[in-house]
Amino acid sequence: MKAIVYHKKHPSDKLIYCDVEKPRPNDNEVLIKIVCASLNAADYRSMKMGITPKKKIFGSAIAGRIESIGKNIRQFKPGDEVLGDLSDFGFGGLAEYAVAPEKALVLKPAKILFDEAVTLPVAATTALKALRDKGNIQKEQKVLIVGAAGGVGTFAVQLAKYYGTIITAVCGPRNMEQASALGADHVIDYTREDFTKSNERYDLIVAINGNYPLLGYRKILSSNGTYVMVGGGYCKS
User: Fold this and answer.
1) Which of 181, 224, 182, 186 is nearest to 202 (CA)?
2) Which DSSP category does 12 fall into?
3) Residue 201 and residue 210: Cα distance in Å, rounded?
4) Which label site among 98, 150, 153, 171 has the fewest CB atoms less than 10 Å from its CB?
5) What is the pTM of this model?
6) Where does the chain show beta strands of DSSP type E?
7) CB 123 within 8 A of CB 27
8) Phi/psi at 14 (nearest 5 deg)?
9) CB-facing half-sphere around the CA of 66: CA atoms within 13 A
């Protein structure tokens, strides 16, 4: 099969498109014909830190069709359309085929396309966990989403809208219209305005790969508010 393989010491290009052996599922795995894969922080950060998958094939979020199953598989059958996150199971999505255990996958909703489905396992799930599980988001709260233009950020805006909150999105000038279209009530261009110096107070702040100091966030957080950091970055001096 074809795959994009990571070669750390390759003289010209560390990512090589080449032929590799097609994987075979064990008794507790399924073989997936990959239709779409998406790149996420789990991929590029692992690569940057030198954490390389055993088979040297990155790709955490995948969507595809099950081609064959191991004898202990009960949830799925050949032909099922699935999506999943392989980051805890050796990655492998940047290839024509990948293997995964049942718990890494769910059935793809019939109404969405594969290229839509592949955004859900990592980006959408991260946004949901940040807002609901860590942030305990509540209706009519004032929510600030910093980094509203990326994969996690765009889902965070939409989910915050679903929960009935008042959303302020922070992004660059090119993405302000998009943030508004996704449901943001207010949009701040971080290149023109320092939101940490605002007199506004927020009940929930979700900072996605933000590079602002924690003290700045604290100043705009309500007395009983919650701050959730997704990813991380270097703080401004």
Assistant:
1) 224
2) S
3) 18
4) 150
5) 0.88
6) 2-6, 15-19, 29-38, 61-69, 81-85, 97-101, 105-107, 142-146, 166-171, 186-189, 202-208, 221-230
7) no
8) -75, -20
9) 26
Whole-angstrom Cα Rg for the chain? 20
C-alpha distances in angstroms, 111 versus 81, 114, 120, 158?
12, 10, 14, 18
How far apart are the C-alpha atoms of 123 and 158, rounded to whole Å? Answer: 12
- Segment 19-66, tens digit of pLDDT: 999 999 999 999 999 999 999 888 888 888 888 898 899 999 999 999
- Which residue type, as a one-letter code, is found at position 93? G
The first and second tokens of residue 194, run together, are 């320092």
Spatial CB neighbours of 76, under 8 Å, sequence gap ≥ 6? 30, 66, 69, 82, 102, 105, 107
Question: Which residues make Cβ contacts (< 8 Å) with residue 188, sequence separation at least 6?
Answer: 168, 169, 170, 171, 195
User: Parallel, antiparallel, or unpaired: how do β-strands 15-19 and 2-6 relate?
Assistant: antiparallel
